[in-house]
Structures are given as structure tokens and as C-alpha cells.
Amino acid sequence: MFFKKKIYHFICSVIFIIYLNPACSNSDSSLYLHFDNAYVKLPLIGSDSTSGYANITNRTDYLISVEGISCSGVSLSSFHETLVDHMSGSTSMEKIERFKIFPNKSIKFSPGGKHIMLMGISEEFTKGDKITCQIFTDPRGIVKVEFEIQ
Predict the structure, then answer these.
(1) Which of 27, 41, 47, 144 is 20 to 30 A from 14, comparing alpha carbons?
(2) What domain count does the chain have?
(3) Cβ neighbours, 10 Å, residue 59
(4) 112: domain range?
């Protein structure tokens, strides 16, 4: 009886770790981190940089930390925030090393606020093209997202 009980507890633990614990399951990343209205502005003629935007929603019951971003066809991609000095009226950008998205909450990346900087664009893009980016998250890993050029 004691041996059967130990085996039962072991099997239940394994099932929990594999299927119920979101940090260990191998489910589709779009089920836990959703990108809505993901787009990149068409770079100006002669420019090799632009910015990207999206609404990012954490569809889980646990905190997700976004640790970085890497995009195809781009030398450097990173998260930034536009800051306004209300005394002088001047604006500046600050790099965001990482940010957290609370359970079942969203963060909006929009013009004049948080955004994705894409610098060193190596390809000629036209409207409707897509840039594929990898978002690095903790605890889940990598989320692939396509941003449409607008």
C-alpha cells in the first residue's frame, strides 16, 4: 500500500510539472503572450532606422518578464520609451532593458510612448512586408512575432 501511494504521488507530480505548470509546458507562445496590432513604420527614404508598435497582453495568471528583442534584417532592435521634460518641453528616448507584464494585463507600445527601435535595417522594405522578431521572455523563452510594415 505504501509503495502504491508513493508511485501515485510521483505520477501526479510529473503530470503537474509537464501539463499544468505554465513555465514548463511546451504550448503555443501566442496562447500566453498575445501581440495585437503589431506594426513597424516604413523607414523614411535614406534612413536605416524606424520604430515598431503593438499591444502586448499577458494571457496567463503569472508575471511575465520581457528581457529583450531581436528582429530579422535589422542590426539592432531594442525597447525604448519616449520621455518628455515638462519644464523645457524637450523629449528624449530611454532604453528599456526589461519590463514586466502582470497577469491578464496589457502594455501598449504606441507613438510618443513605449516603442521598439529598429536600427541598421539591411533590407529594402515596402508597405505590407513583414519583419519577424523574437521576443525573449522569462519564464517561457522565445515568442516569435511578425510586424507588418505600414
Answers:
(1) 144
(2) 1
(3) 15
(4) 29-149
